[in-house]
Amino acid sequence: MTAYEFLKPLTFPKKGITAKNRITIPPMTEQMAFHDGTVTQDELHYYSLHTGGVGMYITAVANVNDLGKGFEGELSIAHDEDIPGLTRLANAIKQNGTLAIIQIFSAGRMTNSHVLRGHQPVSASAVAAPRAGYETPQALSGAAVEQTVEDFGAAVRRAILAGFDGVELHGANTYLLQQFFSPHSNRRTDEWGGSLENRMRFPVAVVDKAAETIARYADKPFLLGYRLSPEEVETPGITLNDTLALVETLVERPLDYLHVSQNNAWGTPLRDHSDHTIINQAIKRQLGGRLPMIVVGGIKTPAEAEKAAENFDFVALGHESLIEPNWVEKVEADNEDAIRYAVALSDLTELGIQPPFWQMILNVSGGPAGVPVVGETTNDAQSSGE
Ligand SMILES: Cc1cc2nc3c(=O)[nH]c(=O)nc-3n(C[C@H](O)[C@H](O)[C@H](O)COP(=O)(O)O)c2cc1C
């Protein structure tokens, strides 16, 4: 077996929990939960097929309250009634020592009144997302912001009771935590908005509430991660400098890792094309070794994973892990030639990928061109998702 860095175990220093290797599956919404967010057999089957090789598996995002639901088929962690299904999900993932982390969020303004069964979406301020078709949300009152912080805490308690090894707070991809941090979506004039420090107040309050809940309810070490997106393209919008300030604040909080959400792990600033700074390296410099860091984006081959592992702590494989559930096992068995880098539509059932999930993969990937499909035309690929 090649002595890859990414196959070596890594221990989260604050909790003493060890991931058996440094390959992670990042959160990927699979649209397979029931209409009320409870876990389905299809979901359990999908997770059990893809787990076991990687060191850590982060689930699809789960909403912490009902108004936080972003998509149909999304997992819910908003009610105690969700716990039995979530327990089965944690157990399905925890095979062969893989750590099971559940990602939690509120979608904020990135949803609609159809998904919310007639309710208006909520956000930091009444500003619609600058994308076609998005509704203007209702600004949360101060009391509702505080209740949302409590809802995150209650969700963390449910994750502990369900037997997960940790939670990841979804502060990325334009959802509510990011909406509070962003000067685009947060135009508040109270203590939750305005200055950079005030825009960090909600993310920090959620981190602190999560940590407090872990201290109170977990009877064994339990990880707390935070995922962020480094920039927004809008003006006003989050800049890399804003993010470095957020990182500096987060690193002082009781977190166990930082997860940087990007489509290219070696990406440079989107806002300033003359700036060739590698965003992940800038964030790593800011962290200064004080927190482990997960990078993601376009990593598929063992060579690409090794380059990332030589520079960062954990390496996440998104699209590639959908297509190749035995990636780690094939590397460990010196069988790299057998790693699959494209999917045949006839393999989707074997991979546990149901049609709505396939459609989601196509949508998230910018259409059929973003997903390597072999053996059939992209039109066939699209229609199979219906
Ligand atoms: C189908 C699909 C669903 C996703 N759902 C989530 C999600 O629930 N939460 C999240 O933070 N990111 C989500 N992502 C983003 C991935 O975690 C990852 O950052 C992205 O796919 C880039 O990594 P890759 O190039 O290795 O695929 C999703 C991506 C895909 C393809």
TrEMBL record:
Protease among keywords: no
Keywords attached to this entry: Flavoprotein, Oxidoreductase
Top-rank lineage group of the source organism: Bacteria
Domain NADH:flavin oxidoreductase/NADH oxidase N-terminal stretches: 8-336
GO MF annotations, alphabetized: FMN binding; oxidoreductase activity
Pfam families in UniProt: Oxidored_FMN
InterPro entries: Aldolase_TIM (IPR013785), NADH_flavin_oxidoreductase (IPR051799), OxRdtase_FMN_N (IPR001155)
Name this polypeptide is given: NADH flavin oxidoreductase
Native organism: Schleiferilactobacillus perolens DSM 12744
